[in-house]
Amino acid sequence: MFDMMGMMGKMKELQAKMKEAQDNLKNITVEAEAGAGMVKAKANGQRKLLSIEIDPTLLKADNAEMISDLVVAAVNKAMDEAGEKGQEELKKQTSGMMPNIPGLDLSNFGL
C-alpha cells in the first residue's frame, strides 16, 4: 500500500535539506586565474562573483582589450569551478534522500 503521509514527510525533509545545502553554498569559495595569475576572480558556490584582482603592471600600459579578455577568462573559470563545487555540495547534503534518476540535474535546485 502506498504511504502518502510517509512520502509527504520525506518530501518536507528533502526540502529542508535542499534549503540548508543551498544556504551553505555561500560558504564555498573558489579562485581562478588567467594570464599566469595576472587576473584573479573569486566566486562562491552560489555562482556569485566575490572579487576581481588585477595585477597593477597590467594597468600601467594601454592593455584595455587584454585586461578585458583576461577578466572574462578568469570569471568564467571561477564560475565553472563554483558551479561544480556547488553541485558536489548539494549531492553530498542530499545523499540517500533522492532517488537515483539518470539525468537528474541538481543545477535546477538553485545553482
From TrEMBL:
<feature type="region of interest" description="Disordered">
    <location>
        <begin position="83"/>
        <end position="111"/>
    </location>
</feature>
<comment type="function">
    <text>Binds to DNA and alters its conformation. May be involved in regulation of gene expression, nucleoid organization and DNA protection.</text>
</comment>
<keyword id="KW-0175">Coiled coil</keyword>
<dbReference type="Pfam" id="PF02575">
    <property type="entry name" value="YbaB_DNA_bd"/>
</dbReference>
<feature type="compositionally biased region" description="Basic and acidic residues">
    <location>
        <begin position="83"/>
        <end position="92"/>
    </location>
</feature>
<comment type="similarity">
    <text>Belongs to the YbaB/EbfC family.</text>
</comment>
<dbReference type="InterPro" id="IPR004401">
    <property type="entry name" value="YbaB/EbfC"/>
</dbReference>
<dbReference type="InterPro" id="IPR036894">
    <property type="entry name" value="YbaB-like_sf"/>
</dbReference>
<keyword id="KW-0963">Cytoplasm</keyword>
<comment type="subunit">
    <text>Homodimer.</text>
</comment>
<keyword id="KW-0238">DNA-binding</keyword>
<protein>
    <recommendedName>
        <fullName>Nucleoid-associated protein ACFPIB_14135</fullName>
    </recommendedName>
</protein>
<feature type="coiled-coil region">
    <location>
        <begin position="4"/>
        <end position="31"/>
    </location>
</feature>
